């Protein structure tokens, strides 16, 4: 291996680490900034790139994190207490700079120091690229969780992949989504620290060999494999003003030096370099599919690469601290699997414990089933991962043997519990038999874990009644719920400085750590002066959002209108289409002159479609075409505006959430596992219009039914309605819906593009429409009318807005992580010493 892993002969003594603490004052910060800008990056007054000020500032702050990072690591080692590892193929961290400043409590000092240099902080911060290493909710949840773990001083490390290309950038051309690669690392990433000394070697392919050793034990070896190196890059995760800095460790794939000596020696230099390329492809790109698995070999490689490297890293650390005795390993370690994407970890931990550390099956299995915990994030059948057995055999032959063995022992247990129930054995098998047998990853995760949770009360309930029913019958105690949450640091303190100031003045500053404190706002909802300030802040935030929309979409949003927003991945179950039907209905009313007591409305929709998801792409096109027709029609002036905001991402949500009045959470009941955007909006004083789905139910419970616009079928209602669903009857019986369909079907929104919306339109009329858009149309329109009426009564609306924020404490990810820790991880907080 490279010289980097050799012991250093000329080892510095400890005084090299003996550094005075860095200044947290404006002048000291500004001096460091100047030094990095001029000396490290060599910029002078001829440099007009806005990127270097950002980079100099990032390094100035990174230095301050570095000190605390080291102390945190040492404190965890010294405490010797239990640790948890959050394994996820996605971490949607968003920008790091403002978060670091807030958490280090230097936001004010930095702003002042830069101001003295004639620089504006906000402008500099806007040059940070948004690391988009995730698709949507699941990836952003992982980031909120890391923030809460650090803020609660829990020894938790995130493990993920360092994709060279993150989530694609979305452009809209002629109303259509166009994808552009996101080479976010092009200009370097000042927040990462390469750790080549912790490189791991990961095996792929080859075959297995077994022999019996002197003690009569069967030893299995995985041989002739094609190995790839995993090089870790560490990202600091600062806690909120507590000196804790945790780690997110992201693996990059690199070729081994001996990747193909044979070919090299045979003189096929180019071929052998091409092999090197193949190795490095593993972490080249994030798969942009949200909720639909597509069975690609490279994706399975990514999953195993993450699992194998992370487990090796944890075992290496264990041996460093405890030696090769694994008897206390399960007591002191826990892996949380973020959906089934890293579920191959169950078999890989078994493999490493047995084949690399000499444990027996029984010991290894005991460790595995007491250290793994699995979170499910979706009920949609198309999102459930299954991998062809043949792919496993080819790529991970030894891992497949272990999966077969786990399955054989598991099915024996099932047979013991339900003798003769062959059908149950077939249903519960980790292998789905058939022409092309498949490994069921969710079942592997359940069998190998001591905890299985859903992400909202309804979702966890539906899991045990449906998908995981047989497993719940077998092990009821394994199953639990952990309703999602979002971090109040990024999603309130950071993104809404206006509201932060008002909260600090009204209830003190503790709410940032303890979001339940927001409940102390409740009495202030009755104070007219307080309401006026609240309203003013919302209007300022709306002005900022409107400025962005004008700049990006060329659409003007008047500030007296309801800002009605739906931003999330585009998916049929999320029903952006229902939103569009409502917009067309409003347009019809305007054309009809039915505008008495009208509340002006600005509808904003944003989100990415998976590149291969044709229907989602058509929905984007429909939104854009409807927006064009509505906005161009002079009769809508002052009454209705519609915009599609391209490239929805974390940094955009930081502008959108504070400026939103009405939060659209309108999925078909039973389909949205939780939702987390709904929580961000609520925290920022938006009112939800939504179905009884996911966490909406708990949001409504917290805020009270009078402060929530509810509509639609229940999850049970959806299922029973399926058998006699007649959308054409519904359309015929509802003149408003009929008018909407007529306008759509007349080609009004695709004058020069005949037929482009046929599929979308037909889906509404389809008796087998799984999302039952027509069924909920009437209820939705009525709930929207209630929202409009409430908005026209300003005092009433502002009171509702305050109460929504006041009751959002439950949706802090600190509460969620507190529950994960209490029920699953059982870690002791560690405050960094010295
Ligand atoms: C294999 C392809 C694939 C990719 C991503 C399948 C499934 C996914 C995720 C499960 C999709 C996802 O992000 N799910 C969302 O997770 C959030 C966090 O728990 C929930 O709030 C959302 O309701 C859920 O859709």
Overview in brief:
The chain has 834 residues and is of the alpha/beta class. Helices cover 47% and strands 14% of the residues.
Explained architecture:
There is one protein chain. The chain is of the alpha/beta class and 834 residues long. It has three domains: 25-196 and 232-249, Rossmann fold, CATH 3.40.50.2000; 290-482, Rossmann fold (3-Layer(aba) Sandwich); 535-811, Glycogen Phosphorylase B (Rossmann fold). The protein contains 33 helices and 23 strands. Strands 1, 2, 5, 6, 9, 10, 11, 12, 16 and 17 form a ten-stranded mixed sheet that branches. A six-stranded parallel sheet has the order 20-19-18-21-22-23, sandwiched between helices. Helix 25 links the parallel strand 21 (662-665) and strand 22 (687-690). Helix 22 (576-592) crosses helix 29. The longest helix has 29 residues, at 51-79. The protein is globular and about 90 Å long. The two termini are 36 Å apart. The model has no long low-confidence stretch (mean pLDDT 95). The site of ligand 26W has 23 residues, from helix 6. Ligand 26W is lined by residues 135-138, 141, 289-293, 339, 377-378, 383, 385, 455, 484, 672-676, 694.
- CATH architecture level-2 label of the largest domain: 3-Layer(aba) Sandwich
* CATH-defined topology of the largest domain: Rossmann fold
The CATH first-level class of the largest domain comes to Alpha Beta
Poorly predicted tracts of residues: none
- The pLDDT mean sits at 95
Strand content: 5-15%
Structural class: alpha/beta
What Rg, in angstroms, do the CA atoms define?
28 Å
Ligand list:
ligand 26W
Instruction: Please indicate the count of domains.
Output: 3
Largest sheet descriptor: 10 strands, mixed
Inertia-based shape: globular
By DSSP (H or I, 4+ residues per run), the number of helices equals 33
* CATH homology group of the largest domain: Glycogen Phosphorylase B
Can you count the beta strands? 23
- What is the CA–CA distance across the termini? 36 Å
Measured as a percent range, the helix fraction is 40-55%
